[in-house]
Amino acid sequence: MTSKQRAYLKGLAMNLTPVQYVGKSSLTDENLRNVEEALAARELIKLGIQKNCDDDPYLIADAVAERTGASVVQVIGRKIVLYREGKDDKKRIQL
């Protein structure tokens, strides 16, 4: 992903609300399942990390991206933005 594509996605993600929160139990299979479904439906999603989660947001972002096949667009504070290109019939974002 180029820096221009990343900047474009950051602009689109600015108004998104988190679709999933990672809490005290950190990353669970249920969280990953929900993220997978959200990526399939939306392509670009935002995750929130609650204050009671002790894990580093960058490590969580890398783990989620690796397990779901998504790209990390940005990690800012306790928010993570992920992008995964949709299938041909569900593709909404043109990079």
Backbone shape: globular
What is the number of beta strands? Answer: 4
What value does the Rg take, in angstroms? Answer: 13 Å
Average pLDDT works out at: 88
End-to-end C-alpha gap: 9 Å
Segments where pLDDT lies below 50 for 5+ residues?
none
The biggest beta sheet is recorded as: 4 strands, mixed
Order of helices and strands: HEHEHEE
**SSE class:** alpha+beta
User: What share of the residues lie within helices?
Assistant: 25-40%
Summed up, the helix count is 3
As laid out across the biggest beta sheet, the strand order is 1-2-4-3
Account of the 3D structure:
The chain has 3 helices and 4 strands. With 95 residues, the chain is α+β, with helices and mostly antiparallel strands. It has a 4-stranded mixed sheet with strand order 1-2-4-3, with helices on both faces. The mean pLDDT is 88.
List keywords for this structure.
95 residues; globular; alpha+beta; 3 helices
Helices and strands, with pairings:
Layout: H1 3-13, E1 20-22, H2 29-42, E2 44-49, H3 57-68, E3 71-76, E4 79-83
Parallel strand pairs: 1-2
Antiparallel strand pairs: 2-4, 3-4
Structure in a nutshell:
The chain has helices at 3-13, 29-42, 57-68; strands at residues 20-22, 44-49, 71-76, 79-83. It is an alpha+beta fold and 95 residues long.
